[in-house]
């Protein structure tokens, strides 16, 4: 069996976990889902779900991972041997595979935008950025090139392992992402009509929230914290005993909320300032970003730098997804990490072809009224993720050894019995009941 790697420091683990969370979920998916789901009311629900549902679940995955010392599949095999509970880990690996299959398509778009953002190639006078986005997403050749480059970067970093690959890159570029995000926010807030965008984003109007909007807010809290598919089980399995899990989870959750807030501050003032529609969906970020930077001195340079950092944030999330898949097939030591990573990346590229062609060749083919891209997104974010989270909640509250759970929760920190009791109550009652009620609301059983 190959030697088991560990994170070199607590900050390395937190930044890697935050990197897994802060990516397309917070920067790309959150703004457009907020736009189509009513603005401020959606954001408020997202915060509530993140703190009361997502954070306890994140702590749970940390406990399962470090408590077992194993990746997604073997963690449940070790903690509940010869039982159906091992299916949670398998669901996680399948879910990560499906998620990365469409995630790599968006990652490919970001990659192409990075290439086009070389000064003078993207920002031009009278440029219609909506048409640029449509051209990129509807061109199979361009989309495939972007996907291939994106997956190749994933392959290289994950093949190097935890310390030399994932942790090292996160430590260097995550702080830079925050810095350039602040630059964009400052510029966006100084635009004319910016306050109207802020009101849309921050002022709750619950008349615009539907059952589907509530489900989206719940799914977004799962998606943006990378919980439900045991990504954080795998990451925390590389963690030493001295790190306090609840405080680490709180740091990751807070960073995620802050980035989502910054994304809203950056996007919605610009949307209203330039007369764009906040409900235009997945293309929102790709249209707003160039529009904002076009109004800035040295806008081409800043756009290029920000897109590179946005690409990194996208990659840090995809690293965690690919790591779950790779670690599931390499932890036994019978297979080489490099070989498994190469094979997984090739299979991922093939699996992503339907989603990649959903804006072009396959745009007329629909699954339950959705394109292949949207159907995969909905299946992963709004069905499989909540199911995974529900099963994890039941597992840790009713099946996992209670002494081990308590030990992992309290170890390495000053949190007392009261905090543990509160967290355990949330996992035993509030988390599973909330997930069930939200699902029932989507079936029209609650008006």
UniProtKB/TrEMBL annotation:
GO cellular component term, pick one: membrane
Membrane spanning stretches: 12-30, 42-64, 91-122, 142-160, 172-194, 214-240, 252-276, 296-326, 338-358, 378-397, 418-446
Pfam families in the cross-refs: SNF
GO molecular function: symporter activity
Compartments (UniProt record): Membrane
SUPFAM superfamilies: SNF-like (SSF161070)
Keyword check for Membrane: yes
Family from the record: Belongs to the sodium:neurotransmitter symporter (SNF) (TC 2.A.22) family.
Name recorded for this polypeptide: Transporter
Highest taxon of source: Bacteria
Membrane topology: Multi-pass membrane protein
Organism: Pullulanibacillus camelliae
InterPro entries the UniProt entry points to: Na/ntran_symport, SNS_sf, YocR/YhdH-like
Main localization (coarse): membrane
Keyword Transmembrane helix part of the UniProt annotation: yes
Key words, A-Z: Membrane, Symport, Transmembrane, Transmembrane helix, Transport
């Amino acid at each position: 069996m190959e030697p088991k790697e560990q994170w070199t420091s607590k900050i390395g683990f937190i930044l890697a976990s935050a990197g897994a969370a802060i990516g397309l979920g917070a920067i790309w998916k959150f703004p457009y889902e907020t736009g189509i789901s009513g603005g401020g009311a959606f954001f408020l629900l997202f915060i509530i779900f993140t703190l009361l549902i997502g954070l306890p679940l994140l702590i749970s995955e940390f406990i399962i991972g470090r408590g077992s010392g194993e990746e997604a599949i073997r963690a449940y095999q070790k903690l509940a041997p010869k039982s159906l509970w091992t299916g949670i880990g398998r669901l996680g690996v399948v879910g990560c595979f499906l998620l990365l299959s469409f995630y790599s398509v968006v990652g490919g778009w970001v990659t192409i935008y990075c290439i086009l953002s070389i000064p003078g190639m993207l920002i031009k006078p009278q440029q219609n950025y909506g048409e640029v986005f449509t051209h990129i997403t509807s061109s199979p050749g361009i989309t495939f090139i972007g996907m291939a480059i994106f997956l190749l970067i994933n392959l290289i970093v994950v093949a190097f392992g935890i310390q030399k690959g994932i942790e090292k890159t996160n430590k260097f570029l995550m702080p830079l992402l925050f810095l350039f995000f602040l630059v964009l926010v400052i510029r966006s807030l100084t635009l004319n009509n910016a306050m109207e965008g802020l009101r849309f984003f921050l002022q709750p109007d619950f008349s615009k929230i539907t059952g589907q909007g509530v489900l989206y807010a719940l799914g977004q809290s799962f998606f943006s914290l990378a919980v439900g598919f045991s990504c954080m089980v795998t990451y925390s399995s590389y963690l030493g005993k001295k790190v306090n899990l609840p405080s680490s989870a709180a740091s990751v959750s807070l960073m995620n909320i802050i980035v989502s807030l910054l994304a809203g501050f950056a996007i919605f003032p610009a949307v209203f300032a330039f007369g764009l529609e906040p409900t235009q969906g997945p293309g929102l970020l790709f249209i707003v970003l160039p529009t904002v930077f076009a109004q800035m001195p040295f806008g081409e340079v800043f756009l290029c730098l920000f897109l590179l950092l946005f690409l990194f944030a996208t990659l840090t999330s995809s690293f965690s997804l690919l790591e779950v898949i790779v670690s599931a097939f390499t932890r036994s030591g019978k297979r080489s990490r490099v070989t498994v990573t190469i094979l997984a990346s090739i299979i991922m590229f093939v699996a992503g072809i339907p989603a990649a062609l959903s804006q072009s060749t396959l745009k007329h083919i629909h699954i339950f009224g959705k394109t292949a891209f949207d159907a995969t997104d909905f299946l992963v974010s709004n069905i499989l993720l909540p199911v995974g989270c529900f099963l994890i909640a039941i597992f840790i509250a009713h099946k996992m050894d209670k002494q081990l759970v308590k030990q992992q929760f309290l170890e390495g920190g000053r949190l007392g019995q009261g905090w543990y009791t509160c967290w355990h109550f949330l996992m035993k009652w509030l988390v599973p009941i909330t997930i069930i009620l939200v699902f029932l609301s989507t079936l029209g059983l609650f008006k």
